[in-house]
Amino acid sequence: MALRTSVADVVPVVTSASSSVTATSSPRWAGFATDTVQTKNSLGCAMLETSTMMSRARQASRHDAMTNAADENNSTGPSLSDARLQGLPRSFFSGLFSVLLLVSAGAVASPSMVQVSQVVAEQPRVVAYVAVRDEAGQAVEGIEPARMQATVGATVTSVSALTPFPNTSEGVAYLFAVDVSRSIVGERFEQMKTALRDWIQALKPEDQAGLITFGSSVQTQAALTADRDMLKTAVDALAPTDQQTQLHAALMRGLDLSQQRAEGLPVRRALVLLSDGLNDDPGGVSADEVLARMGEGSVPIYAIGFSAVLDRAQREAGLTALGRFARQSGGLLIDAGSGDPAAALHSARERIRVVYRAELDCSECTWDGNRYRVQVTLTGDGLTLSDGMDARLFPAPAAARPEPPSAETVPEAIEAESESAGSATDAPRDESPVAEGTAPDAAEPTEPADSVANWQRWWLPATGAGVALLLLLVLILVLRKRRRRASEAAQEAPASLEDAVPQTDQTAPETIRQPAPAPEDSPATARPTSVGQPPQPTQIVHLTGMSKLNRGQDYALALPPDAVLGRRPDCTLSLPQDDLVSGRHARLTLEGRRVLVADLGSTNQTFLNGVAVHAPHPLSDGDVLRIGQSEFRVRLTADSLV
């Protein structure tokens, strides 16, 4: 009789045990508990299994009871089955059935969502960071590469490697964008700062982080760095003091900074936005401009909604805006509400890190700088889940080429050739201009291998300089001859204008026969005003400052010669106050009637209308040029040299 009572008592214990696990705050079991509550089919299966086991237990109990009754007539000691069961406490059965219940619920969990959060394209491979989660929002592990396929545009690619991100050696570059307007004040703001400090303290050795603030203006408080102390000091200095909220401008700045490329920076990126989602910047950057910028290839935005706004409609409008930016970028919106900010930031960090790193073989893709859709599809178990993101496929940068000689360097090249007396390698090495970003060392004459290498490196510019020199000499001879003939013709010309007209007509055919394109196209013969050529028109490029560092300032740059933008004092436009600008950052060049902008291998890249410049690109009137934190509106006007 006691045995039947102990077995029957197991049923209420299992129910209470399940309830206690569901309500627990333990991180280890919280995910299983959520699965148990939300996955009804799994719970039903588990309860069916439990019911079956309980029925069998009752049958065994009745059988043992009958056996024990029979044994009591023949023996005074306890039966084997009674001893075996009575030796186990009821908590054993409770724990056993709870584990069976939870394992049953977790075992049938299957993927219900695939999200591509970031795409990085570097020829010949494309890397996609993909989240796979179940109905409860929990990460699904154990996905095999064979279950995942991908396309890049119209090209079908294979997934050459699929690795859980925590198992890689990669870090994450986190950029925190914090709203310092008065919409988040008091204890709430201090809680947010504490949560940020905890995140920074938990950074892994391969991680980096940066911090920008936005209110009445957008400020970079800390560039991407692994220095935790510097980051925590920047967080400690935060205070909600501003009256306005330049949310959209902050997103544009954050997207630019998050796409920096430099040696040592992690490839995996995340923009963590802490705000109420309300933009208060009349005439500033619009939401559509931010969304268009995201379409050019973005980093995921993990928006955490903090709001002290009492108006419900206004609060919901802010969260809606944050959600739109987050979804478009491949990120996530977390409504912190009135809850603990630390929990919201912990959830965002988990979402950033718990993804798969899918490496796609894109050797057959078209790498032409155009935008293509990267679509990732997960199949299996009767399901097909898919998500994608646009990315530009820029070709791998070509080897740096030496610049052609300019008009100023040709006389020096002539003098160098005359002094070299047949030294084929020294003259080009000493006098030829070197491509930006290179600094070749002079080869020792005692090392023939280095001399051969230098000759192979410089034979093309040396040949070009020789050809340019020859063309210049021929042009000078032709011009002298024509000037002499014009002088002789002027002495014989009649004094009256009517008599002079035929003379002009007679010389016109010779002017037409002159190879006019040569002086314009050849850099060595640009603007030969010293020999009587008409002056070449000058293109005036006006750069009007749009950022806080130079707002309203107008810089007029005359081309040619080329204009170099950077921090160095010898640059045409020197920007020493912008610490994100490289020494020699970008160059403006006049090519025919077009003005081209080119990046000079800068650390933080050059952006034209929000798109990184990877090759010389023509400027148009009204374009927006950004280098570092400095942003300019481009205006083009034609002028002439006197």
Automatic annotation (TrEMBL):
Pfam families: FHA, VWA
Name of the protein: VWA domain-containing protein
Regions that span the bilayer: 458-479
Highest taxon, organism lineage: Bacteria
Compositional bias per record (Polar residues), positions renumbered to this chain: 70-79, 527-538
Residue ranges of every copy of the FHA domain listed in the record: 563-613
Native source organism of the sequence: Thiohalocapsa marina
UniProt domain VWFA: residue ranges: 173-352
Keyword Transmembrane listed: yes
Disordered: region residues: 57-81, 396-449, 489-538
PROSITE patterns: FHA_DOMAIN, VWFA
Keyword field: Membrane, Transmembrane, Transmembrane helix
Annotated SUPFAM superfamilies: SMAD/FHA domain, vWA-like
SMART domains in the cross-refs: FHA, VWA
Keyword Transmembrane belongs to the record: yes
Low complexity composition-biased segments: 435-449
